[in-house]
Design a protein that fits this description.
The protein has 77 helices and 2 strands. Strands 1-2 form a two-stranded antiparallel ribbon. Helix 50 packs across helix 56 and helix 68 (about 1295-1305) runs antiparallel to helix 69.
C-alpha cells in the first residue's frame, strides 16, 4: 500500500505540473483531467486557456505510445472549447509536431492526428473561398509527383484527383510540365469523375452559423427534406488566379522594336514569333506600360501587306489582352477599330486571328465601351466587315451577363442589327440574326420585343431559331471559357425530385460518415460541428425556433416601438372598450360642462393609467377618450394642461404608437401658441419624439405648423424643433425639412423668419458650410442674415444629446439614453444631403454625342453634361455610362475639350461626394495620362480634378491598387513631375494608407530617380524621405534587390543620403504641406460659400493668408504698380478694322464657348496694353490669380483721395480688350470671380460715363450678348449686378441699340433669363420711351406679347408688366398691336392688369417725351448732357417697389413713396 501511495503521489500535483511530468502515467492522468477541465470552463475567452497554449506542442509530440491518443484528445478538447483567437495561436507549433511525429504513427493515432489538423482548418480564417489555398499546393505538386517513392507519388496523384473534383480544369495548366505518362493517368482519372464536384462535409466556424440559420429558417417554414444550399460546392476557381504574373517587356530582344520596322517580312515575322513565344509561356502578365508595343502591333495589323504578319500581330494582341485582362482596358480603344476594319481581309487564318484578338478584348472591357465602334462598323460599306462585326456582337452578347446589357446598350446596337436584317448580303443577315438571337437568349423576350415590333414572321423565326442554338458563355476570366452550367443546388434539387428516398439515404450516410470522422463535442455549450445538411424530423422545429428567437434577441432584432402598429379603434368601439377599463361615471365626468369636474376626471384617469399594466394599456383607446368633446379644444387652460400631461404619460407607455401620435399631434402643435399651455404641450411633443423618433414627430410638427395661419404657432413650433435637435442630436433626414424652412424664411412675419434663421444656425453646427448651398437662391438681404447667424455659431461644438429614441431595444447599438457621449454628435454630411438622380438625363443620345466625330458636337455635349451637374448640385452615383464616355474625352484631339472634360469630372466628384469611388477606376488611369500633356493649363485642370477626387474619396482610395504606380511608370517627364509633386504633398500628411499601396510606388520611384530629366529626379528625391517615413527604410532597401547592379548602387546612395534625416525632413515637409494644402481648400470653400449671393461684398475677405500677404506687398507699392498695370496703347482702330474686314489672322469675337484660339488671340492683343504680371494674372488657369488681376484693374481705374485715376487713358484706349476679357470670365463657374468681375465692370462704366465715352458697335456686340447671358445665373447677386451694369451701359450706348441684344436674350428656353430680360425691357421702355423698340413699336409689342402665352407663370407676369409700361406710353394701341397674338383669356388678364395699374397712377395718359429721351438722343449724337447723369443718380427703382408691394398683398404704392410720374416731373426741373 505504501508503494501504491508513493506511485500515485502525482495525482495530488497541480494539473500544469502533471502535464509536463517525467512519468508517462502522470502525463496521461493530466491529459484526462485536462479534457474535463477544458469542457468545464464557461467563458471561451477565459485566461485559463492562455495557460495551456504553449503546452499543446508537447501534447502533440508525446513520446509514450499509450498516452498519445489521450494527448491528441486533449488538444481536440482545447480547440473545441477555446475561442478562435486563443486556439489559433497554437496552430503552427502543434501542426509541425504532428507532421513530424504523428503522421508516421499507428493508423489509429494517425487518424486522430488528421482530425486535429482538420480542426485547425475549421477554426482558421481562410484566405480563399475554398478554404484550402490550392495555388500553394499546385506549386509543389509537380515536384512531389517526381518523388522516388511510389507511395508518395500515389498520394500526390490522389491530391491532383481531389483538387480536380473541387476546381475542375483550372488545375491543368499547373500540371502541364509533368511526365506524359503521369499526365495521361491523371486525365483518365479526371475523365472518370465527369461533372462530379466536391461537396463539403465539414464547415468552418463562420460557415456553421450560416448553415444553422438556413436550417432553422427551413424548419420554421415547416418544410421537410430541405437541402440547405452549399455555397462552396457551387463556386469555381479561376485558373488565371493560380498563375504568377510575369513582366515580359524586359525579356523582349534588344532589337525587337527595330526589327518590327524592318523591310524584310521574315525579320518582322521572327520578332513577332519571339513575342508570341513569350506570351504562350507566360499566360498571365504583370501590368506595365504596353502602349508602345500595342501601337506597333496596331500599325502592323492595319498597314502591313503580309497577311502572315497581320495574323501574328493579331494573335499577339489576343495574348496580351488575355494576359492583362482588366488592365488591358486602357488599350482597347487603340486597337479595336483597327481590328474590325481589318476584317475586310478574306484569308481564313487572318480572320481567325482577328476573331481571337477581338474576343480577347472582351476579357478587358464590356460591350458598352465598345458599342460605338460596333455600330460604326456595322454601317461599313464592306460586307465582310459588317458580317464579322455582327458576329463579334453575337459573341459579345454571349459573354455578357444580363445586368451588363442595359437599355442604353441594347437600344443602339439592336436598332442597327435589325436594319442589317434587310442587308443585301446573306452573311450579314445571318450574323445579324445570330446576334439578335443571342441577345434574346441572354436578356429574355420582354426587353427585346420592342426591337422586333413590325418585323415579318420569317425574320422573327430566324432570330428565335438562333436564340435556341445560341450558347451563352459568360466570361469567367479563365484561360478557356467555361460554359454556363446548372448549379449544384439545382442539380441536387432535380435529383431529389426524381428519387427522394435515395437522396435521404445518401444524405443520412454522409451525415453519419461526417459524424464518425471526428469526436463528439459538448452539445450544451457549442453548436453541433457535424451539421446535418438535410432536415428530416419535425421534432427539431421547436429548438430551432427557440434558437432563432435567442439569436434575434442577441442581435437586437426584436421589433421596437417604432415598428409597433396600433390596432385601429373606431368611435363605435370606444364605448364598449372603455366600459371594460373604467366606470361610466368617469366618462361622463370627462365631458362635463363644469371645468372642475373635467380636471377631477383627468386626475382619476391619471391614477387609472398607473393601475393598468403597461403592456395591457391601449394608448389609442385612452387618447380617443381624452379627445371627446370638448377634448383638446377645452377653453379652460387648467383642464387643457391636465390633458396634455395625460398625453405625455401615455407617450411613455410601450403600446403608444404612430396612430396615437398622429391623433393628438395637431392639438399639441396648436397649443404651442397658447402661452398658458405651451410648456405642457411642448413636453408632450418631446416625449412623443423620444418614443417614436425625432424625425417622425419633427416632420409632422413642422408640416402641420406651416399650414397654420397663426404666426405664434408656426414660430413656437420651429423653436421647439430647434431645441429638440439640441436635446436629441441631429437624427433627422434633412431633405424633408428644406421646403418648410424655405417657406418660413419667405414668410411675411418677422418672428417666423427669425425662428427659421435660428433653426438654420443650430443645423449649421452639425452640418457646416454644406447647409448654405441649399439656400443660395434666397434674396441677398435674407442671405446676409443667414450668413450672420452662421458666423455667430461658427466654430461652436454641438451640444451633447440628453435625450434619445427610447423605442428601440436596449441592446441596440444605435439607441441612445440620457447622458449619451458626444460621439452621437458626429453627422455624416453626405448622408444628409438630398441628392438628385440625373440618370434619366444621361441619355443614349447624349453619350453618342460625347463620342461624335465632330469636335463641336462633342463640345456641346460636354457643356450639356456640365449644365446638368450644375442644375442638380448634388447627385446620386447612378450616372449610367457617363464615366466611360468622359474617359474617352481625356484623349481627345481637341485640348480644350480635354480641359472641359476634366472640369466636368471635378464637378461630378463635388456633386456626388464619396460615392464617386465606385466610378474611380473607370476614368482615373486615363485622367492621370493627361498629366503628360505639354500644355500647362491642361495639366492644371487634371491636378484640380485629382484634388477634387481625393477630397471626396480620400487618398487611400486613389492609391489603392496599382493605378498610380502604372501612371508613374509613364516615360513623360511632365507626367512624372506632376505625379511626384502631388504625391509628396498628399503623402506628407497622410494617415491610414496601407503599406502595400505605398510599396507599389517604390519601384516606379526608383525609375524616376534615374530619369534623364533633372526636374523628375529632383521631385523623386523630394518624395524619398516621405516614403521612408511611411513604410520604413528596411522595406525600401529590400526592394532594391529587384534592381540591376548599376541601378542599385545609384538608388542605394540616394536612400543612404536620406536615411538619417528622413523623419526630420518629413516632419518639416508635412508641416509646410499641411499649411499650404489647408489654405487652398479653405480659400476655395470661403470664396464659394462665403461670397455666393452677397452683392457688392469684397472678395478679399475670403482669401488665404498667402493671397493676403501678396496683396499687402502689392498695396505697399501701389503708386508705382498702378502706373504700370495698364499701358497706353492706341491700337483700337487698327484692331477693329482688322476684325471688321475679317482678316484671316483675326477671329471675330463670336462664340458659344470660348475656344483656346480666341483666348490666345486676346492674350496677344493685351500684351501690348498691360504689364507682364497683370497678363499672367488675367490668363492664369487658377481662379485666385484672376481675382488678383481684377483687384489690380479696379485699383487702376478707381479714383484715389486727392488724386486722379491712375490708368484712365490706358483703360479707355483698351476698353474693347478689357470688355472681351470679362466675357471669358462669364463662362467661369466660380461665383467669386463672377462677382468681382461685375464689380470691375461697374467701376469701368462709371469711368466711361464720367468721360462721356460712347461705345462703338463692335465693342457692344462683343460684350453685351455675353453679359445678358448671365441673366440665367442661379444667384440673385449676379443677376442684380447685370441689371446694374446695363443701366450704366445705357449712358454710354444708345438704348435703341441695346434693345435688340436684350430681345435676343428672350430666345432661350430657360424661364429665368426670360424673366430678367423682360424686366430689363420694361425698365428701358419706362425710362427711355417707346421709340427705342426695334424694328418698330408695333412689331416689338407683338413680340413681347408672345411671351404672355408662356407656360411659366413668372414669364407671363413679366411680359404683362412690359405691356403695361407700353400702354402708359401709347395707350390703346397696345390692344391693336396684340390683337392677333393674345387669346381672349390673356386679353382679359391684360385689361384687368391695366385697370388695376390705372388705380395706382394719377393719370394714364401718354407721357410726353421726357428730358430722359432727349438726353438719350443727345448721347446718340455724341452730345454731352449733364441732365442725363443727374437724373439716374436720383431715380427710384419704382418697378421693384411695385413688384415687392404687389407680392405682399397691397394694390397700391405705399404711402410716402414717390411715383414714376413724380420722378419724371422732379427730374425735368432745371438744375439748381
Amino acid at each position: 500500500n505504501k508503494i501504491m501511495a508513493e506511485g500515485n503521489e502525482y495525482e495530488n500535483l497541480p494539473l500544469e505540473e502533471r502535464l509536463s511530468h517525467k512519468l508517462w502515467k502522470a502525463r496521461l492522468h493530466g491529459y484526462e483531467e485536462a479534457i474535463k477541465h477544458f469542457a468545464l470552463i464557461d467563458d471561451e475567452n477565459s485566461n485559463e486557456y492562455n495557460k495551456y497554449v504553449g503546452k499543446l506542442k508537447n501534447f502533440a509530440v508525446e513520446v509514450n505510445a499509450l498516452a498519445q491518443d489521450t494527448a491528441l484528445n486533449a488538444i481536440m478538447s482545447f480547440l473545441e472549447n477555446a475561442a478562435i483567437s486563443i486556439s489559433a495561436r497554437s496552430c503552427s507549433s502543434v501542426i509541425s509536431g504532428i507532421v513530424t511525429k504523428r503522421f508516421n504513427a499507428k493508423p489509429k493515432i494517425k487518424a486522430k492526428a488528421i482530425d486535429v489538423c482538420l480542426m485547425y482548418v475549421e477554426i482558421e480564417q481562410p484566405e480563399t473561398t475554398l478554404v484550402i489555398p490550392i495555388k500553394s499546393v499546385l506549386k509543389v505538386l509537380p515536384k512531389i509527383l517526381e518523388h522516388s517513392d511510389k507511395g508518395v507519388r500515389e498520394e500526390a496523384k490522389q491530391i491532383a484527383i481531389d483538387a480536380y473534383r473541387w476546381v475542375g480544369a483550372a488545375i491543368k495548366p499547373a500540371l502541364q510540365n509533368i511526365k506524359p505518362v503521369q499526365l495521361k493517368e491523371l486525365e483518365e482519372e479526371w475523365e472518370k469523375l465527369g461533372n462530379e464536384r466536391g461537396v463539403p462535409s465539414r464547415f468552418l466556424r463562420s460557415q456553421q452559423a450560416q448553415q444553422e440559420k438556413l436550417a432553422a429558417e427551413a424548419t420554421a417554414a415547416g418544410q421537410d427534406n430541405v437541402d440547405v444550399p452549399q455555397g462552396a460546392a457551387a463556386e469555381t476557381v479561376n485558373p488565371f488566379d493560380l498563375l504568377d504574373p510575369v513582366d515580359i517587356l524586359p525579356k523582349l530582344p534588344g532589337d525587337f522594336f527595330k526589327n518590327l520596322n524592318e523591310k524584310k517580312w521574315q525579320v518582322r515575322k521572327e520578332a513577332l514569333e519571339a513575342l508570341q513565344a513569350l506570351l504562350t509561356a507566360n499566360p498571365k502578365l504583370e501590368p506595365a506600360d504596353y502602349s508602345d508595343l500595342i501601337k506597333e502591333l496596331k500599325r502592323l495589323i492595319g498597314k502591313d501587306t503580309n497577311v502572315y504578319i497581320v495574323s501574328l500581330a493579331a494573335k499577339c494582341v489576343a495574348g496580351i489582352a488575355s494576359g492583362l485582362r482588366k488592365k488591358f482596358s486602357s488599350y482597347t480603344s487603340l486597337v479595336f477599330s483597327t481590328l474590325l476594319e481589318k476584317f475586310k481581309e478574306k484569308k481564313a487564318n487572318v480572320v481567325a486571328a482577328l476573331r481571337e484578338a477581338t474576343d480577347g478584348l472582351l476579357l478587358a472591357t464590356t460591350i458598352a465601351s465598345l458599342q460605338e465602334d460596333i455600330i460604326s462598323f456595322l454601317e461599313n460599306k464592306n460586307p465582310s466587315v459588317k458580317s464579322e462585326t455582327a458576329l463579334f456582337a453575337a459573341r459579345a452578347f454571349a459573354k455578357s451577363p444580363p445586368q451588363n446589357l442595359t437599355k442604353g446598350v441594347l437600344k443602339p446596337l439592336c436598332g442597327v442589327l435589325v436594319k442589317k436584317m434587310e442587308d443585301t448580303d446573306q452573311h450579314v443577315r445571318n450574323n445579324a440574326a445570330e446576334a439578335l438571337g443571342t441577345a434574346l437568349k441572354v436578356v429574355g423576350e420582354r426587353p427585346m420585343n420592342i426591337y422586333f415590333d413590325g418585323m415579318d414572321k420569317i425574320k422573327l423565326d430566324k432570330i428565335k431559331e438562333c436564340a435556341e442554338k445560341a450558347e451563352v458563355d459568360f466570361p469567367s476570366n479563365s484561360l478557356a471559357g467555361n460554359k454556363k452550367t446548372i448549379t449544384t443546388a439545382t442539380a441536387t434539387k432535380e435529383k431529389s425530385t426524381g428519387n427522394t428516398k435515395t437522396t435521404s439515404k445518401d444524405t443520412s450516410q454522409t451525415s453519419t460518415a461526417a459524424k464518425s470522422s471526428r469526436p463528439a463535442s459538448k452539445p450544451t455549450k457549442k453548436s453541433n460541428k457535424n451539421f446535418i445538411l438535410t432536415i428530416k424530423s419535425k421534432d427539431s422545429k421547436k429548438p430551432a425556433a427557440s434558437a432563432n428567437k435567442e439569436n434575434n434577441k442577441d442581435n437586437g432584432t426584436t421589433k421596437n416601438a417604432e415598428e409597433f402598429v396600433e390596432p385601429n379603434i373606431t368611435p363605435e368601439e370606444v364605448d364598449t372598450l372603455a366600459a371594460e377599463v373604467m366606470p361610466s361615471e368617469l366618462l361622463q365626468q370627462l365631458v362635463h360642462s363644469n371645468w372642475k369636474e373635467r380636471i377631477a376626471a383627468c386626475e382619476a384617469l391619471d391614477k387609472l393609467i398607473d393601475e393598468i399594466k403597461p403592456e395591457n394599456l391601449k394608448a389609442f383607446l385612452f387618447v380617443q377618450i381624452i379627445a371627446r368633446k370638448p377634448g383638446f379644444k377645452d377653453t379652460n387652460f387648467q383642464a387643457m394642461k391636465a390633458k396634455c400631461k395625460l398625453v405625455t404619460k401615455l407617450a411613455k407607455t410601450p403600446r403608444f404608437g404612430k396612430r396615437s401620435a398622429e391623433f393628438v399631434l395637431s392639438a399639441m402643435v396648436d397649443k404651442c401658441g397658447d402661452q398658458k399651455v405651451k410648456a405642457e404641450a411642448i413636453e408632450a411633443l418631446t416625449e412623443m419624439a423620444e418614443k417614436l423618433s425625432l424625425d417622425f414627430i419633427g416632420n409632422q410638427v413642422i408640416s402641420y405648423a406651416m399650414s397654420q395661419k397663426s404666426p405664434k404657432v408656426i414660430s413656437e413650433s420651429i423653436l421647439w424643433f430647434s431645441q429638440a435637435i439640441k436635446e436629441f442630436g441631429f437624427k433627422i433626414k434633412l431633405k424633408s425639412y428644406l421646403s418648410p424652412i424655405k417657406t418660413a424664411l419667405s414668410h411675411t412675419n418677422p418672428t417666423i423668419r427669425t425662428s427659421a434663421i435660428n433653426l438654420l444656425g443650430i443645423m449649421y453646427m452639425y452640418i457646416g458650410d454644406t447647409l448654405r448651398t441649399f439656400f443660395e437662391d434666397e434674396k441677398p438681404a435674407l442671405l446676409s442674415q443667414i450668413d450672420a447667424e452662421f458666423k455667430k455659431v461658427s466654430g461652436q461644438k454641438p451640444p451633447d444629446p440628453i435625450r434619445g429614441f427610447s423605442g428601440k431595444n436596449s441592446n441596440d447599438e444605435d439607441s441612445s439614453s440620457k447622458g449619451t457621449s458626444s460621439s452621437a454628435n458626429v453627422v455624416n454630411v453626405t448622408d444628409l444631403i438630398p441628392r438628385n438622380d440625373i440618370s434619366g438625363q444621361i441619355t443614349g443620345d447624349l453619350i453618342q454625342e460625347l463620342g461624335n466625330k465632330s469636335w463641336k458636337v462633342r463640345g456641346e455635349a460636354i457643356n450639356k453634361v456640365g449644365e446638368i451637374i450644375s442644375a442638380a448640385k448634388f447627385i446620386t452615383p447612378n450616372i449610367g455610362d457617363l464615366p466611360s464616355a468622359l474617359k474617352e474625352r481625356f484623349s481627345d484631339s481637341n485640348k480644350n475639350l480635354v480641359v472641359n472634360a476634366l472640369s466636368i469630372i471635378s464637378n461630378i466628384a463635388t456633386a456626388m461626394g464619396p460615392s464617386i469611388n465606385r466610378h474611380l477606376k473607370i476614368f482615373l488611369p486615363s485622367m492621370l495620362n493627361t498629366l503628360g500633356d505639354g500644355k500647362t493649363s491642361l495639366r492644371a485642370a487634371a491636378i484640380n480634378a485629382l484634388n477634387s477626387l481625393e477630397k471626396e474619396v480620400s487618398l487611400r482610395s486613389i492609391l489603392e491598387g496599382d493605378i498610380m504606380a502604372v501612371a508613374l511608370s509613364n516615360d513623360s517627364p511632365n507626367s512624372r513631375c506632376e505625379i511626384l509633386n502631388w504625391l509628396e504633398q498628399k503623402l506628407s500628411t497622410a494617415e491610414g494608407i496601407p503599406a502595400a499601396d505605398i510599396t507599389n510606388l517604390v519601384l516606379p520611384l526608383f525609375t524616376c530617380l534615374e530619369d534623364r530629366n533633372a526636374d523628375v529626379r529632383k521631385k523623386g528625391q523630394a518624395l524619398v524621405p516621405v516614403i521612408l517615413n511611411l513604410i520604413g527604410y528596411d522595406v525600401v532597401m529590400k526592394l532594391t534587390g529587384k534592381l540591376k547592379a548599376s541601378s542599385k548602387s545609384v538608388i542605394v546612395a540616394v536612400l543612404e543620403k536620406h536615411k538619417g534625416t528622413s523623419a526630420v525632413t518629413n516632419i518639416a515637409n508635412a508641416t509646410t504641406t499641411q499649411k499650404s494644402s489647408e489654405s487652398k481648400p479653405e480659400s476655395q470653400n470661403k470664396s464659394a460659400t462665403g461670397t455666393a449671393g452677397k452683392k457688392g461684398k469684397n472678395i478679399s475677405s475670403g482669401k488665404t493668408k498667402s493671397t493676403t500677404s501678396l496683396s499687402k506687398v502689392t498695396d505697399s507699392n501701389n503708386s508705382e504698380q498702378n502706373e504700370d498695370i495698364l499701358i497706353l496703347y492706341n491700337g483700337k482702330e487698327a484692331r477693329q478694322k482688322d476684325e471688321r474686314e475679317l482678316k484671316a489672322s483675326v477671329l471675330k469675337w463670336n462664340f458659344s464657348t470660348p475656344r483656346e484660339d480666341y483666348v490666345e488671340q486676346l492674350k496677344d492683343q493685351m500684351c501690348k496694353c498691360c504689364n507682364k504680371d497683370l497678363l499672367d494674372n488675367l490668363f492664369s488657369p487658377d481662379f485666385k490669380q484672376h481675382l488678383i488681376g481684377l483687384n489690380k484693374l479696379i485699383r487702376a481705374i478707381s479714383a484715389k483721395a486727392s488724386s486722379e485715376i491712375p490708368c484712365k487713358a490706358a483703360a479707355i484706349a483698351s476698353v474693347d480688350l478689357l470688355l472681351k476679357w470679362t466675357t471669358l470670365r462669364f463662362f467661369d463657374t466660380n461665383p467669386s470671380v463672377l462677382l468681382k468681375c461685375l464689380d470691375f465692370l461697374q467701376n469701368l462704366f462709371n469711368l466711361l460715363v464720367e468721360e462721356n465715352y460712347v461705345l462703338t458697335d463692335m465693342e457692344a456686340s462683343a460684350f453685351l450678348p455675353y453679359l445678358i447671358a448671365r441673366f440665367g445665373d442661379s444667384k440673385e447677386a449676379i443677376r442684380s449686378g447685370v441689371h446694374s451694369i446695363l443701366k450704366r451701359v445705357r449712358r454710354v450706348y444708345p438704348v435703341s441699340k441695346i434693345y435688340p441684344f436684350v430681345v435676343d436674350g428672350l430666345k432661350t428656353k430657360s424661364s429665368k433669363p426670360k424673366i430678367e430680360c423682360l424686366e430689363e425691357l420694361g425698365s428701358m421702355i419706362s425710362a427711355s420711351g417707346i421709340s427705342i423698340c426695334q424694328p418698330n413699336p408695333q412689331k416689338a409689342v407683338a413680340a413681347i406679347a408672345e411671351h404672355v402665352n408662356d407656360r411659366d407663370n413668372s414669364v407671363r407676369t413679366a411680359a404683362l408688366s412690359v405691356l403695361i409700361e407700353c400702354y402708359l406710353l401709347i395707350g390703346n394701341d397696345v390692344y391693336k398691336f396684340t390683337n392677333n397674338i393674345l387669346n381672349d383669356r390673356d386679353k382679359s388678364v391684360l385689361e384687368e392688369k391695366i385697370k388695376r395699374n390705372q388705380k395706382q397712377k394719377t393719370s394714364a395718359t401718354t407721357k410726353p417725351v421726357t428730358e430722359e429721351t432727349r438726353a438719350r438722343s443727345a448721347t446718340e449724337g455724341k452730345i454731352k448732357s449733364t441732365v442725363t447723369s443727374s437724373k439716374l443718380d436720383f431715380q427710384l427703382d419704382y418697378d421693384k417697389i411695385e413688384t415687392e408691394n404687389a407680392s405682399s398683398g397691397h394694390d397700391s404704392l405705399p404711402t410716402g413713396f414717390i411715383s414714376s410720374k413724380d420722378v419724371d416731373e422732379l427730374m425735368n426741373q432745371p438744375p439748381i
